[in-house]
Every structure is written in structure tokens, then in C-alpha cells.
Amino acid sequence: MTYLAKPKLRHPTLATNKVGYTRRDYEGKISTLCAGCGHDSISASIIEACWELDIEPHRVAKLSGIGCSSKTPDYFLGASHGFNTVHGRMPSVLTGANLANRDLLYLGVSGDGDSASIGLGQFAHAMRRGVRMAYIVENNGVYGLTKGQFSATADQGSKSKKGVVNTDSPRRAWSTPTARSTWWPWRCSSARATWAGASRATRRSWCRSSRARSAMEARPSST
Fold first, then answer.
1. The domain that contains 40 carries what CATH number?
2. Number of domains into which the chain is organized
3. Is residue 136 assigned to a domain?
4. Which of 16, 118, 119, 176 has the greatest CB tally within 10 Å of its CB?
5. What is the sign, positive or negative, of the torsion defined by CA atoms of 67, 72, 73, 74?
6. pLDDT tens digits for 136-194?
7. What is the predicted pLDDT for the residue at 25?
């Protein structure tokens, strides 16, 4: 991912949490994403949330797929376990890891391509099984890693950087005959009503540490 490591120097009076870690202990390498990318805001929120929740970094396993979003685990929780899987297959690998070791806290990081296209079935069945994890979908509606093609969640009428207009409707992943309302893409809170067995599903913005914290506190306790 990136070979850039952050300087080890730190202020001697940095505050520590209840388990003796400073906020810097939850950071990773220097991000190589585009300047101003919202993915970095999500990484910062995860760092802040884990520090506030007094989670020991070595108790976390972070797994991702392929894409800009799936690069981000290298930028937070550098002392945690990590595995970069193949495109769209992160939920299966995480499920297997969870079966092998129930003591770790699992964090799945995915994107709109990983979860709305090639990995859509994997995402749905992970919800159905109620796998104990915090599943993050970093949705920006574009395949940024491969230079700007529209993803399945791109808004209809949006333009690419070359001026091409998207004529397709965004994927409403959970629109089924049993839906009780018109669902916007990735309204996972509504998905729970359709995918029987999902222990808990919510739609949150992870760009704020308070929301990242509440989402991680609400991880389901089932398998």
C-alpha cells in the first residue's frame, strides 16, 4: 500500500486512555489518497473512536477488499491484525476469521464497487448471517482507483471527469417486493426488514468520531 511511516516522535504529555494508549498509538501510515478525500476522514474517526472506547489495537482485525476504500486500513490501527482480500470477497474471509478466533473485534472496510457490484451477494449474506463485525461501506459513487468510471451507486445525471453523463440509476441494493418504503441506495437500516437474520444494520456517517464510536459499540454479539 504505502511505504511512508509517520515519525515516531511524539509529545511526552499526550493524553492516554484507560488501557494506557495515546491517540497516536491508533494511527497507521501516512495516507497516499488524493488530498481532501473523505476516506481519510473515516480513518480519523475510527482512530478517535477506538481510542475513546479503550480498545487495545492488538484485539482488532481489519479486513478489506480492493479499491481506494480498501487501502485505508493501512492508515489506521497500525498495530492491529490486517488482511487485504480479493475484490468483493472480504465478507467471506472475515467470516472465516471470525469462526477461527471469536476473541477479536472485526472491522470490515469496503467500497461501493466491493459491496454494490462484484461483492453484492457477499454483503447481503454477511447481513443475513449476522456476522459479528462492524462493516464500513465507503461510498463515493466512482471507481477512483481505476481513474473515474461510474460505480453502481453513482447518481443518475452525474458527470465523470471527462464530461460523460451517467444515464444509469443508482443501485437500490435492497429494493424487494417486501420493502415497506422507497429505499435510497444503502439504507441498511431498512435492509434489516428484508434480510431476515441480520442482527443489526444501520446507516451511519463514519466521518464523525461520535458516530463511528456508536456504530462500533453496537456490534452484534452473534456469530
1. 3.40.50.970
2. 1
3. yes
4. 119
5. positive
6. 888 877 887 777 788 888 888 888 878 888 888 776 544 433 333 233 333 433 333 33
7. 93
Quick check: is 209 in a domain?
Answer: yes
- Residue 64 has which C-alpha cell? 478489506
pTM of the model as a whole: 0.76
CB 131 within 8 A of CB 94: yes
Which is nearest to 148 in space by CA: 156, 138, 158, 137?
158
Range of the domain at 63: 34-217
Q: Give me the residue label for grid cell 472465516.
A: 96
As beta bridge partners, residue 105 has 60
The total of other beta-carbon atoms located within 10 Å of residue 16's CB is: 12
Indicate whether 24 belongs to any domain.
no
Amino acid letter, 22: T
Evaluate the CA torsion angle 127, 114, 91, 54 in order and state its sign: negative
| SS3 at position 212 | helix
- Rounded Cα gap, residues 56 and 33, in angstroms: 26
Q: 201, 127 in Cβ contact below 8 A?
A: yes
Say which amino acid occupies 115.
S
In-domain check, residue 28? no
Calpha distance 76→186 (Å, rounded): 24
8 A C-beta contact, residue 160 and residue 143: no
Residue 170 grid cell: 443508482
Residue 70 vs residues 88, 105, 115, 171, 191: alpha-carbon distances, Å? 10, 18, 11, 20, 23
Please say whether the beta carbons of 110 and 123 come within 8 A.
Answer: yes
